[in-house]
Specification:
Elements (H helix, E strand, L loop, with lengths): L7 H32 L6 H15 L4 E7 L6 E7 L11 E3 H6 L13 E3 L11 E9 L2 E10 L7 H40 L3 E6 L4 E4 L1 H7 L3 H4 L10 H15 L7 E7 L5 E12 L5 E10 L1 H50 L6 H26 L7 E3 L1 H11 L1 H6 L2 E7 L6 E3 L1 H17 L5 E10 L3 E8 L6 H4 L19 H11 L3 E6 L5 E8 L21
Parallel strand pairs: 3-4, 13-15
Antiparallel strand pairs: 1-2, 1-6, 5-6, 7-8, 7-11, 9-10, 10-11, 12-14, 15-16, 16-18, 17-18
Helix pairs in contact: 1-2, 2-4, 8-9, 8-14, 10-12, 12-14
Length: about 550
């Protein structure tokens, strides 16, 4: 039996109205939460973020008072604040948290700046005339990004559902703020690192694993005169001389495969004006989080002035050795000149008397032989004294040995040294500077003879070395080198000779020349048992294949 006044239609309508209200509220909540993801995007200002949060709170709690604070992550002080309602004086100057909120969000209350937070054992209301407060910190990953406090009045109370809704909102806001800050920090670091690469005084090139240039910094632009717009995206081999590409390819391959890291390779390049620029590159592989090589960084150093000074020192030392050779050359010229003079006078007398005989042709041959010897000595001397060309050329090591010995004959005779040669006839060619390599051989032979003042044996050997190399050895039976000096003999200005006899630059320059030719030099010696200097030089490589084009390069100006 129905109670008096009960109307089932009214009850159904009430339930329908409640259902519609809940549906409308659910749609509003869904709309607000979906809108947050779109509004909190990379590039949004702090003011925009604050406005987005306030709009969300206002939409979900239209009749409540609210305080929204965004905090500085370092000082934990509010940086931006907005509120609605009669807020107590000074309440917005600090973020207010309850002890339970600190524990729930696992905030680090040992943080040095946590003293800027006002912590309550129980949450205090911050607005006048309110009856209930809901407060949630905007925290994620133990970081505090701000706080939201909502308070209701007797006329518009807040319920448990409102607290759950505000907590859900705060959780999403905190995650969005954390992601926003991470994206901003990542973008800042990316721009900061790019700025470091751009502004660094070092010459920096970064390529991907396919050799395409990703970074070409300002220092390189200034040095070479090529704007990065012409360089970015091109194959790095387009900017490396053909004669250096094989070495570069080998260094890059070793670096990318992990066989070497931080290795150095030197190359001559040309600026836009055609001037040669010597650059030494250090190569390193950049790896991703999985440890795979992601790109290659080349850090260069302009060696143009250094190499120019080295060339001046080498030329000065060469001229000094040339002066020492001059006395011996004069002596070498004296013998053939004497023969030419004697035989010429003899034949001239016989011709005037009409008594030239059939045996006089031998004497004419001796005259020609002497003249040819003089021509060869003077030609070699002039060639050696001429400034060295920068362009390397194919050379036969045995020919260099023969030419070098011809310069040193007087030194060999002066020190009563006997020479033995063991020259391999099947040697590959080497690529280098003739005069500089002659200087190496002359210096080593001269040092060996000076170590055998009382006479001795000088052995010259050429042979194939390990891998694609060629070796020549200079061995003497002189006084040897003390063990304490073995590690220093290639240092500049180090000498064991008496004052005024040696400058200490000879072996240092020899070592630098060999290094410049990508070779190695070492010495094996014991006091009283002589010394053996071993020089190893790379064999002349086959002409490199042209690298695959990285794109259209017609009209591309290369270094």
């Amino acid at each position: 039996m129905l109670e008096p006044g009960y109307d089932p239609i009214d009850e159904a309508n009430e339930r329908l109205r409640n259902a519609l209200t809940q549906l409308k509220q659910a749609r509003l909540v869904q709309k607000v939460f979906m809108g947050l993801g779109k509004a909190l995007t990379l590039g949004a200002s702090q003011e925009d973020i604050l406005g987005t949060i306030v709009e969300a709170v206002r939409s979900l709690f239209p009749e409540a008072y609210y305080l929204v604070q965004l905090a500085d992550p370092k000082s934990l002080l509010p940086t931006l604040v907005e509120h609605h309602g009669p807020l107590a004086e000074g309440a917005a100057q600090h973020i207010h948290l309850s002890r339970s909120a600190v524990a729930k969000t696992q905030l680090d209350d040992a943080h040095p700046e946590f003293r800027n937070i006002v912590c309550w054992e129980r949450l205090e209301r911050l607005f006048e005339g309110t009856s209930h407060a809901i407060h949630v910190p905007l925290a994620a990953d133990n970081q505090l990004f701000g706080a939201v406090q909502v308070e209701g009045t007797e006329a518009a109370p807040l319920g448990d559902d409102d607290e759950v809704l505000l907590i859900s909102l705060a959780n999403q806001l905190a995650l969005s703020l954390r992601n926003q800050r991470l994206l901003e920090e990542t973008a800042f670091l990316k721009d900061y690192l790019a700025s470091i690469l751009e502004q660094a005084n070092a010459l920096i090139v970064v390529t991907d694993i396919n050799r395409q240039i990703l970074v070409f910094n300002q220092a390189l632009e200034r040095l070479l005169g090529f704007p990065k717009e012409e360089v970015l995206g091109t194959d790095v081999f387009l900017w490396i001389p053909a004669e250096d590409q094989a070495r570069f390819a080998e260094a890059i391959s070793a670096t990318l495969s992990g066989q070497a890291d931080g290795g150095a390779v030197e190359s001559r390049m040309r600026g836009r004006g055609g001037e040669p620029i010597q650059i030494q590159w250090s190569l390193s592989a950049l790896r991703d989080q999985q440890g795979e090589v992601d790109s290659l960084i080349l850090v260069g150093r302009d060696m143009t002035q250094v190499r120019a000074l080295e060339r001046q020192i080498i030329e000065a030392e060469k001229m000094a050795s040339l002066g020492k050779l001059a006395a011996g050359v004069v002596h070498e010229l004296n013998n053939p000149l004497t023969s030419i003079s004697v035989y010429s006078e003899y034949i001239l007398k016989k011709m005037r008397s009409g008594q030239v005989g059939p045996g006089d042709d031998d004497k004419l041959e001796k005259v020609l032989e002497g003249a040819h010897r003089i021509q060869k000595l003077t030609r070699d001397l002039v060639s050696y004294g001429r400034p060295s060309s920068e362009e390397p050329e194919p050379l036969q090591l045995n020919d260099l040995v023969a030419q070098g010995l011809s310069f040193c004959e007087h030194i060999i005779r002066k020190h009563d040294v006997e020479v033995s040669q063991d020259l391999c006839r099947e040697l590959p060619l080497i690529q280098g500077n003739r005069n500089q390599l002659l200087q190496v051989l002359i210096n080593l032979v001269t040092n060996a003879c000076q170590a055998m003042e009382g006479g001795g044996q000088l052995g010259l050997t050429t042979r194939p070395g390990p891998g694609e190399t060629v070796e020549f050895l200079v061995a003497d039976t002189g006084v040897g080198i003390p063990a304490k000096d073995l590690q220093r003999i290639f240092e500049p200005f180090f000498t064991t000779k008496s004052a005024g006899v040696g400058t200490g630059l000879g072996l240092s320059i020899v070592s630098r020349i060999v290094e410049h030719h990508r070779g190695t030099i070492c010495v094996d010696s014991e006091p009283g048992a002589g010394a053996t200097f071993s020089v190893r030089l790379p064999a002349r490589p086959s002409p490199p294949e042209a690298p695959p084009p990285a794109g259209e390069t017609d009209g591309q100006e290369t270094l």
